[in-house]
Amino acid sequence: MTTAKDIMHPGARWLPEHETLDRAAQMMREMNVGALPVADGNERLCGILTDRDIVVGCVAAGHDPSRITAGDLAKGTPRWIAADADVEEVLRMMKEHRIRRLPVIEDKRLVGMISEADIARHLSDAQIAGWAERVYAEG
Domain range spanning residue 83? Predict the structure, then answer.
């Protein structure tokens, strides 16, 4: 059985909700990623911040990224998957919630992230096609 841990990108790091968006962008550049999971003071997932969130939600709105925090933009119900979850469960969750990145949790700790690139590298063409059709569907 292929699990979330088998296909994830290891080494993900939390972005504290109090961290500013300019620092978040620097971390994304340093880690060569486009999204970071946002954690509250108890290291519990409270959202995901993307590079697009920073550009559209802050910069394009005329706000100063050194004054806006990750927590200010982390909205909605965060989703995550257990490290030992079957890859079919990963795909189901991403399809159902129409999300493109999924934090992987093991023993209540962040151990990695699953992104579109991870899916493309590890799954069959049929699995990728089904996932993409649902995640990118209109409406």
Answer: 4-135
Q: How many other CB atoms are there within 10 angstroms of residue 76's CB atom?
A: 10
Note the pTM of the prediction, 2 decimals.
Answer: 0.82
In tens, the pLDDT along 10-67 reads 988 899 999 999 999 999 999 988 899 999 888 888 899 999 999 999 999 999 999 9
Beta-carbon neighbour count of residue 129 at 10 Å? 11
CATH number for 91:
3.10.580.10
DSSP 8-state assignment for residue 20: B
Total structural domains in the chain?
1
- 20 burial (CB, 10 Å; 0-12 / 13-18 / 19+) is middle
> What are residue 50's DSSP bridge partners?
35
Q: Give the separation between CA 17 and CA 47, rounded to whole angstroms.
A: 9
Q: Which of 67, 51, 104 is nearest to 82 (CA)?
A: 104
Following CA atoms 65, 71, 72, 73 in sequence, which dihedral angle do they give, to the nearest 10 degrees? Answer: 80
